[in-house]
Structure formats: C-alpha cells, structure tokens
C-alpha cells in the first residue's frame, strides 16, 4: 500500500528522510507531498543528428515534468546530460561521474531518469549503480516502468531486472517469435479469447494469426502467483487467499490496475492453461444460439490420453499447444493444478471443512468478530485512504453484498455498511457495562439464565428420543410389508407407489425429528455458564481512555458482533475469556435458516439492552479522541444488545 494511504501529509513530512525514502513507493515519490532535492540524468549514445533531437526532446520533457512539481527542487547543476558518448564503459561517462560525485556529497535525494537503458547498459551495472547511490541516500526514480529503487523487495528487483532485460533483448525476441510460430499457427486454429491477464492480445487481420505476447509487468505477477502457490517447500506454499493479500500488499496491480486481488481472482490465474502455452477447448459452450449465451462447462484439463488396462481410451487429452511464449513451465502449471484439486478435495473431506478454503480470519480484530444478520461476515473496507490531513477511514461491509459486486439487487442482504466509529463507541459502552460497576447485576442475570436453561432442559416438550425411534421402526416395517404385499399380488403397482411415497415421507419426517432432538440434547449436555471463572474475569482491568477498547480485550471477550438492520447490534460476549476461533461461524453459502436464527433474540442469552442516542454519537465523533466530522444523516440511535455465550 502506498504511504499516503497510511499516513497523513503531516506525518509524512515529519518522517526521517531515509525512512521516508525506504517506505515510499513510486507514486509517493512522483507525487511527493514533502520537498525533495532531485537530480536528473539523461544520456544518448550516438552523435547522430536525429538522436540528438530525440535527446533534446527527452530532456525537455523530463525537465518540464520535474519543474512542474512544486515539491521537487532541481538545481541547474543537478541536470546531468551525457552527449553522444558510447557509454559502454562507466569511465567514458563524464556526466554520470559528476552525478555520482554530487551524490557522494549528499546534494540530492532522488535521481530521476527516463528508463533503465539511459541509466546503465546492462543489468549488473544497473544494480551496482543503484547500490552505490543508495549508500549516498539516493533513490532512483525510473519513469518508464514505474520503478523506485531505494528499497526494493525481491519482486521489485525481479521486475526491474526483467524490464531492463526486456529493453536489451527486445529485438532478439521478436525475431525468435516469428521463426518459432508462424508455421504452426494454421494447423492449430484460431485463438478464441479477447484478453487475458499477463498477456497482450495481438489481433491479426487473419484471425488464425492472433497471438499473445507476455505483458512486461503483468506476466511477472502471473509468474509470482505460480511461484508462491507451488513453492518447492510445501510448508511455504501460500493459498489463493494469502496470495491475494500478498499481491495487494506488495503493489501488484490487477488487470484493471487496482489492488483488489481476491482469492477467486488468483484461482482464475492458476486455472488458466494459457500461461503454460496451451488452449483448453470447450471451456464454455453456447446454450442459446440467438442470444449467444454461453455457460462454463467446468471441463477439466487432461494432460495426456489415458487408457485402461485393456488398452481402451478412457480419457482423451483436451489441450492443444498454442503459438505464444509460456509464462510458466508445464511442470509448474501441472503442479499448481495438482495442489489446487487436492486442496479442494481436502476441503470437502476435512472435518472442519475450513482450513483450506480461504476462509481465514482477517487481521482487523473487529472484522474477525463481525457477522451480518444474513450470516455472512462483515469485511473492513476503505471509506477513504489517508489524505494530507485526514487519517484513513474504514467501514464494515457485508461480504454477501461485496460478493454480489455491481449486481446489488441480486444480493440477499441489504443491511448497510457501518462506520468503524460506531463499533469503537459500542466497544466502549459494552465493555463499560460489563467491566464497569454492574458486576453484581451481571452475575445475578447470569444465574437467572442458568436456572432458565436447567428448567428448559427438564421441561422439554415433544416426543422423546425413544418414542421417535420406535415410530421409525414402525414405519420401516410398514414399508417392508408393502413390498411383500406387492410381491404376493395383494396390491397393484399404482397403489404400491402411492403408499410407499406417503410412508417414505413419513419416515423422512421422523428421521429429521430424531436428528433435531439429538442435536438439542447434545447442546443441553454441554456445560452451562461457569460462574466462578466469569466472576474472576469481571475484574479484568479495561482502559476506557482511548477511542476504542484494546484489540487484545476485544479478541479475548467478544465472541461475535452481529449487525442487524436499523442499527441494531448484538454483542455476544464470551466471559470465560478464552479466545475462540470465529471461523466456526463462517459460512460458504447463504442459508435462510441460519440467517433467521441470527435475527431472533431467542437464540441469544441477552443480558442487557441499551440505546446510544445520536447526541452521544455526535459528542463522541467530535471529541478529541475521534475528531471526525459528524454528518447527521448517517446516524440514528444505535440499539445494542449484550448477550453472553
Ligand atoms: Zn448481510
């Protein structure tokens, strides 16, 4: 993430300069909010007149760009220009050496160049220069390719090396591509895609000649995804969700240039056989020839023909080699495919069913505990990133609504997003009630709840498990008899069918009754509230001076927060103080039954209900600990129900 989304302008300006250079990304430097001493270096290698023209254009363009930025200070003596020198050896370059000397006197912080080719002739020299300059506290801003060299991650280095290598090898590769491909294009047929992340789609008048060229930046991202997923050490392999986080954190842009990588986008990359240079035909089929509606067929790639032991073909290879440069090797692609299908299987068969699904806990502690009344989680989203004077602001949004994207009307849920500030205020009030001076009241209520629980268990209505089981036996015997009656010709086929359908329905009903009852009894047999532990925990010290309760305490005592319509919230507390993994509450699919259970107070042990008025909200918003503008239309009284697990 860019610096500017984390820090205010004031904070950025106060940073130590080297700290700033080390944390900054390309954009933070290019659109710097703090004043920077810059230098610029331009070079051209031959004396040819046209190239001198080109040089001047380049210099003028660069200088105009730099001088139009009020935060860049560019002294005349820091405009370094190399005129018509071959540049094969560093020693030949007078201006370059002057620039290095000037850097060694710590005269500037940022060196701006147009591209890597102007800065160094080969990759080794490029990185040597970068390292020398860094020792002098100078980072290089390379405009083509958006590189910032002061503090490069492994990936940045790779990306820069490839950019530099690409410039060097462009002509070589073009020639190779032509000789490699053309002959076999026709035999393979046409490439039937419109665009694919990682490649530039090159259309040809003869559609059969359409091809793909690796995109200089996106192809690195694709390669990185495969590398992380298929790490040689299985312990170090990342799942799709983790990779998505990694890409977002390390500034790898998506196809549309944003940082909205998700697990499913990563999986889409891993699944695409084009990255190893193949086409899988039949991935979609046309189901409506008039509207040209297509559906995915979920066809699986088959690497080679498979025969049974008698030599009969049972699976046919469905991949055709394409004419373009692969981004990953076939081995890596198939390994990723193997890992992916294995993970899917592990999910289906794992008892918990949640370790490998990408259902992992978010970093934000409130988000970890947040659930919408529709059953889905609530995710943290930017309201806006930090600007010059304002800190970043967030809200919690229903995952179901995020998933439905622009098709909002299709979402089963319409409960609005909630500002983080509401959660902070509630945390103070909820913890204030529990760990404030209501201790006796709470213990008294918990005792009442405990008694009620016992009473409920003793006086359960409805049939007992034994009754239900004997009923089940009866129906099963009836069904059996029916078969015998049919065999002996006592009833005809029609009657038999009618009667069996009715009995099977009855049987299913009883079976469901048994399951429900078993569940109920299992629930009741669980230990009820441990008053002694709770009493001890109620003495926990809580600091109420901040704008919210500390993450540690929220983590320890909040079981989950349920967001309901009309600004109603259930804070389910776990007063035993044993942290619970909220993954158990996470769902993969909408269930009406589950959603309804979250909306029904009967399913919670509610200790206390209170309302926070809009006036109180306003006071909190405008207080020095929050210090945000209060916009009345976004606020209404908040209903808070404290429940105990
Ligand atoms: Zn929802």
Radius of gyration: 33 Å
Q: Rough shape?
A: flat
The end-to-end distance, rounded to whole angstroms, is: 38 Å
Number of strands: 22
Low-confidence region ranges: 86-91, 170-190, 287-293, 347-360
Oligomeric assembly: single chain
- The residue-averaged pLDDT reads 80
**Strand content of the residues, in percent?**
15-25%
Q: Into how many domains do the coordinates divide?
A: 4
Number of discrete helical segments: 22
Helical content band: 40-55%
The largest pleated sheet is described as: 6 strands, mixed
Given helix and strand content, the structural type is: alpha/beta
Bound ligand species: zinc ion
Plain-language structure description:
With 645 residues, the protein is an alpha/beta fold. It has 4 domains: 3-152, Rossmann fold (3-Layer(aba) Sandwich), CATH 3.40.50.1390; 185-349, Alpha-Beta Complex (Hect, E3 ligase catalytic domain fold); 365-436 and 542-644, no CATH class; 461-525. Helix content is 44%, strand content 15%. Strands 1, 2, 3, 4, 5 and 6 form a 6-stranded mixed beta sheet that branches. A 5-stranded mixed beta sheet has the order 15-19-20-22-21. It has a 3-stranded antiparallel beta sheet with strand order 16-17-18. A hairpin with an 8-residue loop joins β7 (199-202) and β8 (211-214). The longest helix is centred in the N-terminal third of the chain and has 35 residues, at 154-188. The protein binds zinc ion. Residues 372, 374, 376, 398, 400, 413, 415 line the site of zinc ion.
What is the compact description of this entry?
With 645 residues, the chain is an alpha/beta fold. Helices cover 44% and strands 15% of the residues. It has four domains: 3-152, 3-Layer(aba) Sandwich (Rossmann fold), CATH 3.40.50.1390; 185-349, Alpha-Beta Complex (Hect, E3 ligase catalytic domain fold); 365-436 and 542-644, no CATH class; 461-525.
